[in-house]
Amino acid sequence: MYIEDTCKVKEVFKVGRRICVVVEMDISSVGKYHNGYVSVLKKNYGKHYSDFIDRIETDELTYSGNLDHFKDKRIPEKVWFFGFDSAHYWNKLHPESKTFESVKARTILLAKEMIKKRI
Fold this sequence. Notes:
Mean pLDDT: 88
Largest sheet: 5 strands, antiparallel
Shape: globular
Strand order of the largest sheet: 1-2-3-5-4
Helix content: 10-25%
Structural class: alpha+beta
Order of helices and strands: EEEEEHH
CATH class: Alpha Beta
Strand content: 25-35%
Number of helices: 2
Distance between the termini: 30 Å
Low-confidence stretches: none
Radius of gyration: 14 Å
């Protein structure tokens, strides 16, 4: 990341037993957008999101890993997450899709889908 790039955890909440996180990113070359993350079942810790892309319909997964780098006490260490971002060309055409509200709503839908599919 560049020095002028910033990220901030906007909200940590639960859907069922899943930990959900919405992060605001402000990247100089892209602008402000948000990412959504949902914790996975322990059986999926260490697995790459690409192994689940064909099973997820809510949003395009773009991340797998822990969120320890955010250093936020509300996020437990070493918990594995799958997530998505809103810094794509489509999001530029539809700026409402980059908002906190939109990303939070899609994070909730992703969590519900992951619970249903036992991911």
